[in-house]
Amino acid sequence: MGEIKIFKTQDSKQIRDYFKKYELETLNLAGIIDNVPEAEIFTDSLDNPSGVLIRFKYFNYLHTVSTKFLDEMFEELFPQGKYGFAGTTRFLTSEIKRRYQLDWENDCDFYYMPKENYSNVALKSNVSEIDIKDAEFIDENYNYRNSHTIHEIKDAISNRPSSGIYIDGKLVCWVLIHEDDSLGFMYTMDEHRGKGFALDVSLDISKKIIDKGKIPFLQIVSSNPMSPGLARKTGFVKKGQADWFGIIIE
């Protein structure tokens, strides 16, 4: 391609400055860098980056507004194979789908909580951190369960804030933080729905994230009719898309 060159780099002030320029759209990239030390970081310049790619195993976390960066990135870093993309803007989703064969997709909406939207009200329930012994129970009730999710759940409980409600020693409602810093794994046992538990754990974990100097955010599958209402009630605001999909390069 010739005009730009993609290279592997390390976390740096320049990378973080790029994130500040596109703060909301790169929250997931920053989260991966913070939580997954083995993730690889790629860019085209440390003076004035036009894009950043974070790669961890199958998934790629990407932000750019430059089609030149996108073209060069695929030329240099994506040989034949299958690749996943996590939480991309609709612009990037469209550009990548236009170039390559789609393998699977989950269109998602992006919600974030402005600090001023956090409601510092007294919670109606006793919310606590989640015990690691409940990791398998959470995994059993996770809609997107696979062979890897138990490890992701244990990592989330061990290394990031969590919020859960216990009744008579049994976990009945919970929410964790994914490795990209988004809220997830949320669930309320059927017999305890309609009691306001999901709102309480959402408010509790949002405060924990804000107290760490970060912005609470989540990515909701567009076909999910229930979660947007809870998100808005908690104080989250919809801001664009954060799509998940896979491609095949032949």
Q: Which descriptors would you attach to this protein?
A:
250 residues, seven-stranded mixed sheet, 8 helices, globular
Explain the overall architecture.
With 250 residues, this protein is α+β, with helices and mostly antiparallel strands. Helix content is 32%, strand content 30%. The chain has eight helices and 14 strands. A seven-stranded mixed β-sheet has the order 1-2-3-4-5-14-6, sandwiched between helices. Helix 7 packs across helix 8. The two termini are 20 Å apart. 34% of the residues are buried. The mean pLDDT is 95.
Largest sheet report: 7 strands, mixed
Please tell me the overall pLDDT: 95
Main-sheet strand order equals 1-2-3-4-5-14-6
Q: Pairing-aware structural class of the strands and helices?
A: alpha+beta
Nearest-angstrom radius of gyration? 19 Å
Principal-axes shape call: globular
Order of helices and strands: EHHEEEHEHEEEHHEEEHEHEE
Helicity range of the residues? 25-40%
Q: Counting H and I runs of at least 4 residues, what is the number of helices?
A: 8
> Ranges with pLDDT <50 over ≥5 residues?
none
Q: Quote the beta fraction.
A: 25-35%
Distance between the termini: 20 Å
Q: Give the strand tally.
A: 14
